[in-house]
Amino acid sequence: MTGTRPQPRRTSVTHKVEHVWTAFAFGAAFFAGLTAILAKAGVQTTPSSLATALRTIVVLIGAWVMVLIVGSAGTITELSGRTWLFLVLSGLATGASWLCYWRAMQDGPASVVAPIDKLSILVTVVLAAIFFRERQSPRALVGLALIVAGTLLMVLRAA
User: Fold this and answer.
1) What is the pTM of this model?
2) Domain that holds residue 67
3) How many structural domains comprise the chain?
4) Tens digit of pLDDT for each residue in 85-133?
5) DSSP of 95-138, one letter per residue?
6) Mean pLDDT of all residues in 56-84
7) pLDDT at 16
8) Is 95 found in the same domain as 123?
9) Cβ-count burial of 119 within 10 angstroms (0-12 exposed, 13-18 middle, 19+ buried)?
10) 82 and 125 share one domain
């Protein structure tokens, strides 16, 4: 024995940064679930389109506060025309999604509307395969099938 202790295995900072997105993904899932409950409570006596417009104002203010906090506002002039195009299209898709979601929440049960909304994962996986050539493993495809089947079970149970 030389008196030296084995050095602990060190994790690279890069490794930690590469996987920090998972924390944000779980945060997104949590806040999306919270949104469903708050949406249902908020649209019971409010027209869904008005609720969407008011919510959008709150999101807009919050997003710009974050842009200013992290100091990325100056990079807006560096955005390409292609980036602008896809940001505008994404914004239109987001708006359409929100309008549909809030209207469904106003009229339907939250425990059914929210799972149907999450079927967006199927759309995302299919479009990612088409446009980005992302391929899923057989295991991931089984998981996707289970998500879709589980959603259908939740929806059909309520019908």
Assistant:
1) 0.76
2) 46-107
3) 2
4) 999 999 999 999 999 999 999 999 999 999 999 999 999 999 999 999 9
5) HHHHHHHHHHHHHS-HHHHHHHHTTHHHHHHHHHHHHS-----H
6) 96
7) 61
8) no
9) middle
10) no
Asked whether residue 74 falls in the same domain as residue 123, the answer is no
Find out whether 105 and 40 touch, Cβ atoms under 8 Å: yes
Q: Do 114 and 101 belong to one domain? A: no
Start-to-end CA distance of the chain, whole Å, equals 71
Give the C-alpha separation, 100 to 90, whole Å.
15
Answer whether residue 23 is part of any domain: no
User: CA of 69: how far to CAs of 24, 27, 30, 118, in Å?
Assistant: 18, 20, 23, 31
133 plus 92 within the same structural domain: no
d(CA 15, CA 2): 32
Distance CA(153)–CA(119), nearest Å, equals 13
Instruction: Give the model's pLDDT for residue 148.
Output: 96
pLDDT digits (tens, 9 = 90+) for 129-157: 999 999 999 999 999 999 999 999 989 86
Q: Does 129 reside within a domain?
A: yes
**Shared-domain flag, residues 116 and 100:** no
3 state SS of 5: coil
